[in-house]
Amino acid sequence: MSDANTFYPRRGFRLDALRVARLLLASLLFLSPFASGADHSPNGSRLADFLDHTGVEQRWPAGVHVAWETGIPDGKPEKSAGKHTHCSAFVASIGKQLGIYILRPPEHSQVLLANAQYEWLESEGAQQGWRSVPGAIEAQAAANRGELVVATYRNHHDDKPGHIAIVRPSNKTRQDIAAEGPQITQAGGTNFLSTSLARGFAGHPAAWGKGEVRFYAHAIDWQKATVK
């Protein structure tokens, strides 16, 4: 009896310790950026470096007319009311530099282009190699693999602008992505080289707050890119 009485408590202790160890390991894996696919691949690092050299914080400034491909003010007068931000022109320019088509001038003017890009991606994007991405965590993972990923929102009012941005590679955890969205690079009312989607889309509360933002991804063939 004494042998049995000393053996089973020890076995119970060992099992409890094993359960605790497994729970700790599971917690570490969940908290790790690798659990969300957030580790950079070589192509992800290449994409991050490319975005870092776009000059987005200086070019595509709000309030003036710009050449959409370069983001440099061209002195032309704006013909419509509004702040005239250039999120969609920036995305169109990045796509062209990477050899990827997204709706852009001259097929559509810069006016309300973000709304039009949202609709184009939904209806015609697949024909040009774009695929829908189901959510924020998947969008971040795709960017980290080195795909061009856009986050896009259509304004509910036809005469008001939507917004579009590029998801950039990042080591954000699942918790961070769930709280504030993936990391993005954007032109807009404020141009950001790197910020959260929640912050970048703050002018459109329904985009992140109500889950109305949509994500699309496109593989990058660096042999077709004009910037190597």
What is the name of the CATH topology of the largest domain?
Answer: endopeptidase fold (from Nostoc punctiforme)
Distance between the termini: 76 Å
CATH superfamily of the largest domain: endopeptidase domain like (from Nostoc punctiforme)
- Shape field: globular
SSE order, as H and E? HHHHEHEEHEEHHE
State the helicity in percent bands. Answer: 25-40%
Total strand count, please? 6
What is the tally of helical segments? 8
Q: Please give the domain count.
A: 2
Q: What's the CATH C level of the largest domain?
A: Alpha Beta
Query: What's the CATH architecture of the largest domain?
Result: Alpha-Beta Complex
User: What profile does the largest beta sheet have?
Assistant: 6 strands, antiparallel
Task: Explain how this protein is built.
With 228 residues, the chain is an alpha+beta fold. It folds into two domains: 31 residues; 186 residues, endopeptidase fold (from Nostoc punctiforme), CATH 3.90.1720.10. Helices cover 39% and strands 12% of the residues. It has eight helices and six strands; from the N terminus they run ααααβαββαββααβ. The protein has a six-stranded antiparallel beta sheet, with helices on both faces.
